[in-house]
Amino acid sequence: MNDTILERFHYDNKIVKYFGAATIIWGLIGMLVGVLAATQLFLPEANLGNPYTTFGRIRPLHTNAVIFAFVGNAIFAGVYYSMPRLLKTPMWNETLSWFHFWGWQLIIVAAAITLPLGLTTSKEYAELEWPIDIAIAIVWVAFGANMIGTLIKRRERHMYVAIWFYLASFVTVAVLHIFNSFELPVNFWKSYSAYAGVQDALVQWWYGHNAVAFFLTTPFLGLMYYFLPKAANRPVYSYKLSIVHFWSLIFIYMWAGPHHLLYTALPEWAQVLGTAFSVMLIAPSWGGMVNGLLTLRGAWDRVREEPVLKFMVVAITAYGMATFEGPMLSLKNVNAIAHYTDWIVAHVHIGGLGWNGFLTFGMLYWMWPRLFNTSIYSKKLANTHFWIGTLGILFYALPMYVAAFTQFLMLREFDEMGRLAYGNFLQTVVELVPMYMLRAFGGLLYLSGAVMMMYNMYKTAQKGVFQKYEEDQAPALTKSYNATGEFWHRAWERKPIFFTVLSTIAIAIGGAIEIIPTILIKSNVPTISSVKPYTPLELEGRDLYIANGCVGCHSQMIRPFRFETERYGEYSKAGEFVYDRPFLWGSKRTGPDLHRIGGKYPDSWHYFHMEDPRSMSPGSLMPPYPWMTTNLMDYSDLPAKIRTLQKLGVPYPEGYDQQAMQELDEQANQIAENLKESGVEVLPHTEIVALIAYLQRLGTDIKTSASN
């Protein structure tokens, strides 16, 4: 006779429904902004003639909306659905669940308001200013506390593999976000990074690469390990492979960030470490892909019929492609071709559109009908979504690969006289326009598929009846348990706190070994005595440059290749960036590098170029910024900026905050006078004057051997 007493409990489907709906809504918004940004690259008029919708400002809006709003809400929907069911208990605290939901949506709204206004740190995937950073940390910790509380009150003895990935994602994102967000506020919407130049670049790409790893990859691997077996009605192929996959992935990933900075001013040893560990990543990444695809053994006949499985198969395949391509891109000879070209854009979108997007679609198509106790409204429409989305990915990615090789081959070509065959960077841009058109068409197809899904989900909800609470029962977890002869990893799975601590140690090692020496050992960043802090006007111009997202198209890092030094001038040195908070090395060149632009053209050239780029560079795809010639700068916070930078170690003299405005006026008046001599009347305190001051400073601190 079995005396086991079953305890009754319920799962909260309402929080899952809200996160799922937010996923769909924010996904459509993020994709729409992406299509607009893609259109602007061949039709500058799509910038809509105001500062808030220019490419430089909506590009980070697009990336934040897709990563943190679309993908983020998808992660939370999947976790709040799967975790209670895997642990046989409701989430620990319903109030925390709703605090998490509304807090995250408010953060997204804050991002949608501040980024178009130019309130940005300019750090890739971490553009939001310090008050929002603090809010992110608080909401994220609430999410983690809810997860760990649920683990402690579980009725299931062992943690399933999906939960390993959820835990590691929580811990690592918290560590990454907090350390990369160290900044000193100037005022409520302005701060300066605690790191400068080379150190800032290393910390940022330690964060940036691992944000991709632990926000876009590991949580989705957890979702894959739950939803794929459910959809296929098959167990995970290999438990032991999942163990190797998990621990090797979270340990190795944290070392790989420096591969984003190959051939730059980053110390060579850090570049080598980044490359070595990036290549190693192929093994655990493909271990996960193989484990996913082989889970479908015996169910491949159903892939033909079931749109959920179609989406998941393509998602896992895209994951495999992206995680093969990533290590290949970290090889220095391949990186020399790909970096600063559209290859990187294609690579990111294979992962984003294929892996994250399609797994999200598959998860929603499986989960949504179950929330409403019905079947999907239209399987035919879901299949149509699949094929349109797949075509969208192909139309997006393939032209970007063509664009990348076109740009690289043109930029590096020399004629028989030993001169650059295409000396004008604009010659390469014009050739890429057809590819940019195809890319925008691909994005439009992908967006159209997502609209179909929204309609299908809406009709599915109408067709069924929502189950707010789903009843279940399970025996309580008994404390007496005979663990004799238990597999070692099974023992770890019974100890969630111990498991979390081990995961934290695994992810901390790589970052600590790379970052701490770069910050503490001064020889990693040799100083240059001629490099001085920015003048007040140059500092304000730099902040304006950052606010307008110019780094989204223009790098400030000349690599030691002949075709780059011939085109731009002397290659960049680590010591030139010691006062750059944040660094502005860029990741994509839609326009030429600007690190040696200072003194190359007269002030009037910059004035006319910003007012109407095509007047100085016929065929340019850069949007005009005519408002800069009339908008007045607000210098009221200049003393606070100087004091903040002094606290961060910038050697402005004592009391400089009181005399900075006088020095700014002198330099602004001089630039206004230069422009007047060229027939341009402009007020000294306009935005264009500050921007010209900054551009004319770039690269002038050291003697160079520029050929142009």
From TrEMBL:
PROSITE patterns: COX1 (PS50855), COX1_CUB (PS00077), CYTC (PS51007). Residues 536-699 form the Cytochrome c domain. Its cofactor is Cu(2+); heme b; heme. Its EC number is 7.1.1.9. It is an enzyme of class 7 (translocase). Heme b 2; high-spin binds at H347. InterPro entries: Cyt_c-like_dom, Cyt_c-like_dom_sf, Cyt_c_oxase-like_su1_dom, Cyt_c_oxase-like_su1_sf, Cyt_C_Oxase_1, Cyt_c_Oxase_su1_BS, Cyt_c_oxidase_cbb3_su1, Cyt_c_oxidase_monohaem-su/FixO. SUPFAM superfamilies: Cytochrome c, Cytochrome c oxidase subunit I-like. Binds 1 copper ion per subunit, denoted as copper B. It catalyses: 4 Fe(II)-[cytochrome c] + O2 + 8 H(+)(in) = 4 Fe(III)-[cytochrome c] + 2 H2O + 4 H(+)(out). One of its GO terms (biological process) is aerobic respiration. It is found in: Cell membrane. GO terms for molecular function: cytochrome-c oxidase activity; heme binding; metal ion binding. Keywords: Cell membrane, Copper, Electron transport, Heme, Iron, Membrane, Metal-binding, Respiratory chain, Translocase, Transmembrane, Transmembrane helix, Transport. Cu cation binds at H209, H259, H260. Pathway: Energy metabolism; oxidative phosphorylation. GO terms for cellular component: plasma membrane. Belongs to the heme-copper respiratory oxidase family. This is cytochrome-c oxidase. It comes from Algoriphagus hitonicola.
